[in-house]
Amino acid sequence: MIESSEEKTSRDFYIEYNFRYLQCPLTLNKKVKADEEIVYEPLTTLNAMVRHNRMELLNHPVCKEYLLMKWMAYGFRAHIMNLGVYSLGLIPLTLLITRIRPGISSNATEIHQTGPLEYKDSHFIRVCMCLVFTMSLFGICKEIFQLFQQKLKYLLDYSNLLDWTIYTSSIIFVSSLFVNIPARLQWECGAIAVYLSWMNFLLYLQRFESYGIYIVMFWEILRTLIRIAVVFFFLILAFGLSFFVLLCSQQHYKTPLLSVMQTFAMMLGDINYHEAFLDPLLSDNLPYPFLSYAVLIVFTLLIPILLMNLLIGLAVGDIAEVQKYAALKRIAMQVNLHTNLEKKLPYWFLSRVDQESITVYPNRPRYCGFMSVFNYCFGCEDSITDTQSADTTLELEILKQKYRLKDMSTLLEKQHELIKLIIQKMEIVSEADDDSNDLFQHKFRKQQLEHMNSKWDTVLKAVKSKSP
């Protein structure tokens, strides 16, 4: 990273980012691909940083600009195209759910005979059904291709199971266009399809830096909540079965399943105290009043107060650590996206869009037209501002150290002068006055050599004594 000599506030001030240590030259990559014995992995350096959780290195301005260069070169286009293809199935599915009333089978004859929709609407619905069916088949073909390509790694990714569920339920929902199916099954699949489709849409927004980190944080907190809920489900089950035994005469606790569901609703604050406890007690319809109130008091202390505060504390209390992990995971997803794309893109395309270095002018607009609007809504944070603030902090710390060293040097000089005056007043003769320019280490070494007896001294003395 090289900064120009102009003032940082000048319009001509620029920063040059060099990526030669982050990527392998494309000409060398072509030779490596020709040699089948050598395996080349794109973005090797960044993948190593992700593998070893080097968050500081991944947040370095050069690494961030390198990922941004890859994103603007081909990652952005590929992701927008993928998002557009997905929307071709999502939008018609949403229109079908909103246009057709639940409880009516959506095959063409019944829609036209039922009467709530006009003929032009039924034609529009047929078009939407065909679009949903076509895009679902296309999605299934894509998933099968990825299964053969990724093999075991494909089965370990939960998002692939989500895609299969969406495509299967969507096909069942619109299959009444070709075959007769029960309306109940059709609308159940429609509800599952539209719910999971919009949930899956969030996964596509993870790639955009403005919102991606919050989506990743949401999924991480949800994962923590599910792990805790599995553990404390037995506590809810204990109270649910206890209320089933004590309040089985009431409609809300008539069966064990209803009792557990009512206990879950009570956990969220809907205790329904008057109808379930107070009114039956006053009308003498509560079979076990003392034990019922005892269990209610224990439930109120343990579940709405203790457990709910514990869940909130675990989900929100460690938000800084979750945000740090989410940032690392989002960068890891970006690196994984660019790695997979570079494996599939041809050499001629990469040679046109790849750059070994870029020059950024911080005081000029970086994008124009549609890209400026898109970057304002979905773009990443400006790394130039982070770099300048980091540089300012570093300069301030260096300036502080400079002043501290200057103060220490001044104090040492004053002490030196004071010691010299004391020596002069006391009329002490110091050897340092005779040889003040000689360093202590040199004098010590010199004295050591003078007093050192060499092993050849004895031999020389013997030779001299024998010589006539």
The count of helical stretches stands at 20
Largest sheet: 3 strands, antiparallel
**Helix amount, in percent?**
over 70%
Number of strands: 3
Structural class: mainly alpha
Secondary-structure element pattern, one letter each: EEHHHHHHHHHHHHHHHEHHHHH
Mean pLDDT: 77
Give the terminus-to-terminus CA distance.
78 Å
Write out the strand line-up for the largest beta sheet, numbering strands in chain order.
1-2-3
Unreliable runs: 104-120, 434-440
Apparent shape = flat
Q: What would you report as the Rg, rounded to the nearest angstrom?
A: 38 Å
Task: Give the strand content.
Answer: under 5%
Verbal overview:
Among the domains are: 215-317; 390-462. The chain is built from 20 helices and three strands. The protein has helices spanning 26-34, 44-51, 55-58, 61-99, 108-114, 119-150, 152-155, 158-174, 183-205, 209-246, 256-267, 273-282, 289-316, 319-344, 347-353, 370-378, 383-426, 431-434, 440-451, 457-466; strands spanning 2-3, 15-18, 357-360. The relative contact order is 0.09. Mean pLDDT is 77; it is low at 104-120 and 434-440.
Topology summary:
Elements: E1 2-3, E2 15-18, H1 26-34, H2 44-51, H3 55-58, H4 61-99, H5 108-114, H6 119-150, H7 152-155, H8 158-174, H9 183-205, H10 209-246, H11 256-267, H12 273-282, H13 289-316, H14 319-344, H15 347-353, E3 357-360, H16 370-378, H17 383-426, H18 431-434, H19 440-451, H20 457-466
Antiparallel strand pairs: 1-2, 2-3
Helix pairs in contact: 4-6, 4-9, 4-14, 6-8, 8-9, 10-11, 10-13, 10-14
GO molecular function, one term: monoatomic ion channel activity
Transmembrane segments: 74-97, 123-141, 161-179, 185-205, 225-247, 290-316
Protein name: Transient receptor potential cation channel subfamily A member 1
